[in-house]
Amino acid sequence: MEQDKNLDVFNGLASFVDKQEILEGIVNQLAKDTGFDYSHIPLDAEDPIFLETMRKDLAFYIRNLASKSHIRFMHIIFRVDISQAKMNTIPSGDFYYHQLSELILSRLFQKIITKRHFKS
Fold first, then answer.
1. Is residue 92 part of a domain?
2. SS3 string of 23-81?
3. How far apart (Å, rounded) are the C-alpha atoms in residues 20 and 52?
């Protein structure tokens, strides 16, 4: 996995009119589901550096949480709705939490898009 690679979950944002609104929804859902608060940072859906920084910060947050409380970590995984099968696909190693944070953001993206679809 390349560290400079754009976060895959956000590549799909190009097809939506209001990328910023979707990103705000993801950040709000992230705070609700994980306790990771990124609302104090100015959000920029057009900036790939911002998106990668957010993923790295989430990976750091998840790593720290897992090292302090496995129960809280698993609660977050359950709340975000990451299946055990998907978690098993992540190879252990240096990039485990980076890939896990990508799975979390991808799942939250799915939640936001689903809510928008059924809201209309």
1. yes
2. HHHHHHHHHHHHCCCCCCCCCCCCCHHHHHHHHHHHHHHHHHHHHHCHHHHHHHHHHHC
3. 16
Q: Which of 64, 102, 110, 68 is nearest to 86 (CA)?
A: 102
Residue 86's domain comprises 18-119
Asked if residue 23 has pLDDT above 50, the reply is yes
Query: Exposure of 71 by Cβ count < 10 A (0-12 exposed, 13-18 middle, 19+ buried)?
Result: exposed
Would the pLDDT of 48 be above 90? no
Give the H or E element holding residue 86: helix 84-88
